[in-house]
Amino acid sequence: MSTSSKPYVLSEIVLRDDAPEWPSHSMFVNRTKSDLAILGIPYTRDPLTFATVRGALADKTGIKDVTVPTLEYAPGEYVTDSWAIAEWKNHGTPENSLFPAGGKPFARFLKRWVDDELMFEIRELFRPLFYRYQDPQSAEYFLRVKYGGDAALLEGQIARLGSKEEVAKLGARGRAKLRTLENYLADAPAGGPFLLGAKPSHADSIVFGWYLCSQVNAAVVNAELWDNDELPRIRAWVKEMKKATGLDLSKQWEPKAVPK
Ligand SMILES: N[C@@H](CCC(=O)N[C@@H](CS)C(=O)NCC(=O)O)C(=O)O
């Protein structure tokens, strides 16, 4: 728990500068939110957009290549990067370890697998929608940086999400990759229900961050990936993580919420 009297401030990225109340769509921010929830640590939000991460946050923290999540844990003191934040908290609260004994190498391996492999197989089911919901400046940045300025590629991916057949293909591809995790869960330490046993840890947050950001297309990703009969252990794990963290973004990005 924080020793300072001020609560932690979590800098996070949101889709629209005119809707700061929207939750963060960043898988990395959501990883840290999951960790903070697991540890029971309260915080206040500092909602930013791509432009203000590079501007105001870089200026404030003095970290030129700063990204979100960034946590201000005491006035003017910052820790950035979801893994670094998890390690840092681990030092601060040994009794609430986010890395249970022997679990860190697994978490490190899992992070590589999730961020370098799993994400490529699932993100097309939801990531294109970030573009649709963003304010114009964020959308311009997203297209330029994340899609190399290839508007046709991005529009093609958005259009693909409008086709039942194409969504079914994307879903099958995502489930094929998630099967690795499904099989792992069958042999999770101490019988689970979490990835490293009876208690949630940073390993769970690594995957859960992706689950949370995918909820921008909740009806589709839940039917295809997270709540699908082919992956019953993953379905049960998602339920346990929602219970353990209180985080559920499935209703936050309904199309009707897009400001005019
Ligand atoms: N390895 C970092 C990655 C963080 C990251 O890439 N965050 C993105 C948002 S999803 C960001 O801050 N982007 C700002 C930018 O690209 O300028 C972590 O785990 O925290």
At CATH level 3, the topology of the largest domain is Glutathione S-transferase Yfyf (Class Pi), Chain A, domain 2
What is the number of helical segments per DSSP (H or I, 4+ residues)?
11
Mean pLDDT, to the nearest integer, reads 92
Overall, the morphology is globular
How would you characterize this protein structure?
Helix 1 packs parallel to helix 3 (82-92) and helix 4 runs antiparallel to helix 8. The protein contains eleven helices and four strands. The protein folds into two domains: 8-96, 3-Layer(aba) Sandwich (Glutaredoxin); 104-257, Up-down Bundle (Glutathione S-transferase Yfyf (Class Pi), Chain A, domain 2). The chain has helices spanning 27-39, 50-61, 82-92, 104-122, 127-133, 136-146, 151-160, 164-186, 202-214, 218-226, 232-245; strands at 8-13, 43-48, 70-74, 77-80. With 260 residues, it is an alpha+beta fold. It is 55% helix and 8% strand. Bound molecules: glutathione (GSH). Glutathione binds next to helix 2 and helix 3.
Topology:
Elements: E1 8-13, H1 27-39, E2 43-48, H2 50-61, E3 70-74, E4 77-80, H3 82-92, H4 104-122, H5 127-133, H6 136-146, H7 151-160, H8 164-186, H9 202-214, H10 218-226, H11 232-245
Parallel strand pairs: 1-2
Antiparallel strand pairs: 1-3, 3-4
The protein binds glutathione (GSH).
Residues 13, 26, 28, 50, 53-54, 67-69, 81-83 line the site of glutathione.
Give the gist of this structure.
This protein has helices spanning 27-39, 50-61, 82-92, 104-122, 127-133, 136-146, 151-160, 164-186, 202-214, 218-226, 232-245; strands at 8-13, 43-48, 70-74, 77-80.
